[in-house]
Amino acid sequence: MVEPDHHRFDTRALHAGQRPDPVTGSRAVPIHQTTSYVFDSVDHAAGLFNLEVSGHLYSRISNPTVAVLEERLASLEGGVGAVCTSSGQAALHLAMATILHAGDHIVASRNIYGGSHNMLNLTMPRFGITTTFVDPRDPQAFGEAIRPETRLVFAETLGNPGIEVLDVAAVASVAHDAGVPLAVDSTFATPYLMRPIDYGADIVIHSVTKFLGGHGVAIGGVVVDGGRFDWAGSGRFPTLSEPYDGYHGITFTEEFGTAALSMRARAEGLRDFGACMSPTNAFYLLQGVETLPVRMARHVDNTHRVVEMLDAHDAVSWIRHPSHPTHPDYELANRLYPKGAGAILSFGVHGGREAGRRFIEAVELASHLANVGDAKTLVIHPGSTTHQQMSAEDLTAAGIGEELVRLSVGLEDPDDICADLSRALRASQKG
Amino acid sequence: MRFEVAGRSVHAATGAVTIDRADAVDAPLVVLVHGAGMDRTVWSHQTRWLAHHGARAVAVDLPGHGHSDGPALSSIAELAAWLGDVSDALGDPLHVVGHSMGSFIGLEAAATFGDRIASLVLMGLGASMPVHPDLQTAAEADDPLAADLMAGWMHGTDQKFGANPTPGMSMTGTSRAVIETSPGGVLGLDLAMCAAYDGALEAASNVTCPTTVVLGRLDRMTPRRSAQPLVDTLGHATVIELATSGHAPMMEDPDIVRSALLDHLFPVAI
What is the DSSP string of B173-192? Predict the structure, then answer.
């Protein structure tokens, strides 16, 4: 059987979305640090503003450097297109704002990043959009929570901080049976480890800040449009399937079909809400994406070494990573993540909250900060930081105990990472 | 837009401009016809622009494709007759802009129902369209591999890298999604009828309407050389060759195709 004629993943990570600059020959992606673009003519300008022709008109809506990153991420995820945003949270908001109205309802995993939980649980209700949270390990729970006014199912492919593994195909099937799309935050997985669109997800969101960038120097987000959901056939998404006065009566599904979501997200969402990515940040983030395959392979290898070390350490009460046989999703992770289920893990320190605090204070190589997916190893205590706004009840429901430490395994020599953690664990027991 | 042809509903994009508006009765009626397994959206770079530049633009979903009622038709001759019915339904001769299989449909219609076809713009075609047997097998099995193969072969070398004219969009990703989401069985049927159609040269010899042929030099599905017998037979056609286009010039070089459409329509109809 003949093979499809596409560049493979590692090649696309370096090249997709860019051809060398035809004027200067520049091999690297240039930083187009400009707000605006000269029009060829009045007719050309009118065509750009009216979505008759493609191109750049103002960098809030599109920019050549950002467009390279968008096309590259769309290619790596297997989507039809992508829209980059100023942050991962802006990406989640953009996806929701593009398809939801006041009165709509979301069914979401309860085990998600604290900031996303806040947005869904506290902020969006002020705009008339409510959310029911369910156990991400129970695909039927998503279906049972879907109401007539439900317009979105949302989950993380690898939960935060418990690394619950989402059965993407099962949840997508439940959502599609109800005529609702599945959006996933796949920040912890990256397309190198798993491509959710291949399993039926319709929208993929990333904090590009994390593993995709990998260096911890730039904030950014992206909405990748899978292009397979039948927005018009569903009949529940008038922003995409009914005429829009914002562009002289255009109907996005009629004119753009599979690209309706990404076209509306850019044409309305970036135009009106304005949470665009800067070209300089896009440049920084592109440097990271270029090495994503080799970095993720090393992240995963180092994580397996750290899991082995923690597993044997007396100060560790439990470990939560899908590569560990005690993880409830061990089998599912082996099936969905043959290259490894990411480099984020959590563990408990014997001695509870105080021992956890002593551990954090004792690490020297690992950095204590509110980020993951950096080239450097990072640790944090979610109960007092990223998830502090959650009630004790919500924390328990999300599986976050007071003793939980979240670890983002970096690219240092694994012997040095293990030595640092082991020494800090010993220190944690000397209270 | 929806309209009826032979009792079945046809869906089309019109650039959000109604074609029966009072100030457009004399505007050329341009019907854009997609290729195998595709739909109206392959013309998204042209439809809305034409609608705002003096034409009545109608990018149709062929029967059984996109949002048009089925069943899908099973021969180029049947689809050419259907295109004649479209002209009757819309009330004017058509300026047909066809891509790949859509070019064959336009060509056959112009040869058979010349009074209903005002002019032709044909792109992504040869005198014949043989189909790789692995592609045909995958298409008949509704195997996603078929979409993957077509998306890989459809575009010129540049699109292996990208830099889509539409910011943030992946051209191969979009083509793959359009084909993947086409109704079951349709791609296999379309490819089989393309491979079976052997009337292109005879049809070309009977075409008298103004004709423009747009050819991509990087076309791997219908290589440039395979179009030459057709160009020679048409005789009178204006030929535009695009150095960087593959099989889908309307997506790969949208600015040049829009310009070609303007040049084609102005002396003919405006």
Answer: HHHHHHHHTSPTTHHHHHHH
